[in-house]
Specification:
The protein is mainly α. The protein is about 65% helix and about 5% strand. The structure holds fe (ii) ion (2 copies). One fe (ii) ion (FE2) binds near residues 228 and 229. One fe (ii) ion (FE2) binds near residues 148 and 193.
């Protein structure tokens, strides 16, 4: 019997990351160059691939959070979402050719960027699992990689119907990896899991109330999806809890930096997709504020500060950052000396706007004894 016959046929049924990736490897023959090229981009705004000091990560001792840890792992091992991430009778037919071209372009861009982000998590978690020797750590990372492989595979299923798909095997080998020290991986990944939860659940609840705006079936899967991201975030909160230094002293500045960078990136990225948000019936400013509010509430479980998103400098500087980003894109498209000057001027404006956001005094609060949270939104 060869491997091909014993691995399940769909990524939704894969019980390990290796199975999930083997299935996607076989589908890669149909994947498109254009979508993969978009996923290969490395700019400040596109999802990146990360690598870290795996030995340092492997040395974590979770005994101080053992009870919560075991409970979380047991829940992930039980695997309530096995088989969920596949097209079934709830999957409505999509008339991609009939879709308004502006929306089609932005939606495909959204799917490619989401798929790359899911896969970025998969690659990092899988590598940690492969390199580690610490049973707690490797087990956690194996489980998280399993989930992210399913998520990426499912988005790729949706993309294939539009005639494009990302070649994930190619990305693994060819996309540039950014090195982050483990503590930066914790801050960045914790936040991206929690903001991912907040983003998915906010869209899901909105479409529950306004089903006429659900222009694609994938949104129906967002509730179970965000529960996976919620658990991943919980795991990183526990990892950070094992070492109080990570969330105190000078590191609070790093936390503030990551909070500002993650929130600002989301704002700029979402505002690049006006047609997509119009089709969803979502005002991107309202959406950003809603997602920040939820993420801040959640991150109080481990971070001693939250950003003051009600501060008078907050919204105007997000808008300034967005306009600067538009100017940079225009400069790039224009080319030549004039284009370069425009790009630099945009870059300088963006930097000033970011500093202005970063220097808004943060809200401080006491962090609870236990990090444990349930997804309540
Ligand atoms: Fe995911
Ligand atoms: Fe995740």
């Amino acid at each position: 019997m060869n491997v091909q016959n014993i691995t399940p046929a769909h990524t939704a049924d894969a019980t390990t990351v290796e199975e999930g990736l083997a299935i996607q490897e076989r589908q890669a023959a149909f994947d498109s160059e254009a979508a993969t090229a978009v996923a290969m981009q490395n700019t400040l705004l596109t999802p990146r691939f990360y690598t870290t000091d795996f030995e340092e990560l492997d040395a974590i001792d979770v005994s101080s959070v053992r009870e919560d840890w075991d409970q979380l792992i047991a829940q992930m091992v039980a695997d309530p979402n096995k088989g969920h991430f596949r097209k079934n009778e709830d999957w409505d037919h999509i008339d991609w050719d009939g879709m308004e071209p502006g929306l089609r372009k932005e939606f495909i861009d959204f799917l490619i960027s989401s798929c790359t982000a899911e896969f970025s998590g998969c690659v990092l978690y899988k590598e940690m699992k492969r390199r580690g020797t610490n049973k707690d750590v490797t087990q956690l990372f194996q489980l998280m990689a399993r989930d992210e492989a399913r998520h990426a595979g499912f988005i790729n299923d949706a993309l294939r119907e539009a005639g494009v798909a990302v070649n994930l095997g190619f990305l693994t080998q060819k996309k540039k990896y950014t090195y982050f020290r483990p503590k930066f991986i914790y801050y960045a990944t914790y936040l991206s899991e929690k903001i991912g939860y907040a983003r998915y659940i906010t869209i899901f609840r909105h479409l529950e109330a306004h089903p006429e705006h659900r222009f694609h079936p994938i949104f129906k899967w967002f509730r179970e999806w965000c529960n996976d991201e919620f658990s991943h975030g919980e795991a990183f909160a526990l990892l950070m809890k094992t070492d109080p230094k990570l969330t105190s002293g000078v590191n609070v500045w790093w936390i503030k930096f990551f909070l500002t960078a993650v929130y600002a990136t989301m704002y700029v990225r979402d505002h690049q997709r006006p047609e997509f948000h119009k089709a969803l019936g979502v005002d991107p400013d309202w959406y950003a504020h809603e997602v920040y509010t939820k993420t801040s509430k959640l991150s109080e479980q481990i971070f001693p500060i939250t950003l003051d998103i009600e501060h008078p400098r907050w919204q105007p500087n997000l808008e300034r950052l967005h306009r600067a980003n538009v100017q940079i894109a225009e400069g790039k498209a224009q080319g030549g000396v004039g284009g370069k000057l425009k790009e630099w001027a945009g870059g300088a404006k963006a930097a000033l706007a970011f500093v202005s956001l970063f220097t808004i005094p943060a809200n401080k609060h006491r962090v609870p004894e236990s990090t444990r949270l349930e997804p309540v939104y």
